[in-house]
Write a structure and sequence with these properties.
7 helices, 8 strands, 29% strand, alpha+beta
């Protein structure tokens, strides 16, 4: 769908202003729950390019099926809209094959793909009452507990609680990282917020990978887009 078909001219203008390429026929990886096959309804607009040093990503506005349970137990079907930044950070999967971090108030937006990963018993306890109040964080039972706790350092917890954009979430599954916000972001300052949060998160993940593997193995010399072993 052309980016101006549903009032998304601002998205196209952002691409032009930041040397990003619109991809009207592009595709997104379907490995994370937000983008899962059968739940993602459509990609409304898509662009690709460099968000920062060694960070190539796709930025997309997507819609997905949403089912809301009413007070009487009946269900109402509709759709929910998200803006997402999608990139690859493959070396982190040896420490956490998958992890999900969603705002507590948006947990109802999680679909079947997320539920299949979570199984109801993989929620992380990071010993922060305020973080638990604000977020729901889950990770693979095969995770490296020490590495994850180092990733969710006190400074990162402060970022999540105080600086992350409203509606912020991220999902990491087998190398693919999807950072998202609820709603269609078409204003430059809002897209900047998603971009900056993505850059911050990738830098933290790569930093923890380098800390564990050493500078040589953990350094990201390439964007890693489509290159399984090239980036942190």
């Amino acid at each position: 769908m052309p980016p101006d078909a549903t009032g998304l001219e601002g998205f196209a203008a952002y691409a032009a202003a930041h040397d990003l390429t619109l991809e009207p026929d592009g595709r997104l990886p379907r490995s994370t729950p937000l983008l899962a096959e059968g739940e993602l309804r459509r990609v409304e607009a898509l662009m690709r390019g460099w968000l920062g040093n060694y960070l190539e990503a796709q930025l997309a506005i997507v819609s997905r099926d949403q089912t809301t349970t009413n007070a009487d137990g009946s269900e109402t079907k509709g759709e929910a809209h998200f803006t997402a930044a999608v990139t690859h950070v493959p070396k982190a999967k040896r420490f956490a094959p998958w992890m999900l971090c969603h705002r507590a108030g948006d947990e109802h937006l999680l679909g079947r793909a997320a539920e299949e990963l979570i199984h109801g018993n993989d929620r992380l306890d990071l010993e922060s009452a305020e973080l638990d109040r604000c977020y729901r964080i889950y990770a693979s039972p095969e995770r490296d507990e020490v590495w994850l706790r180092e990733l969710f350092s006190p400074s990162f917890i402060v970022f999540l609680i105080e600086r992350a954009p409203k509606g912020f979430a991220f999902e990491y599954v087998e190398g693919t990282l999807c950072v998202s916000e609820v709603g269609r972001l078409t204003l430059a300052e809002d897209i900047d917020g998603l971009r900056d949060a993505t850059v911050e998160l990738v830098a933290r993940i790569r930093g923890e990978v380098r800390e564990r593997l050493g500078e040589a193995q953990g350094r990201s010399g390439h964007s890693g887009w489509g290159e399984e072993g090239a980036t942190g």
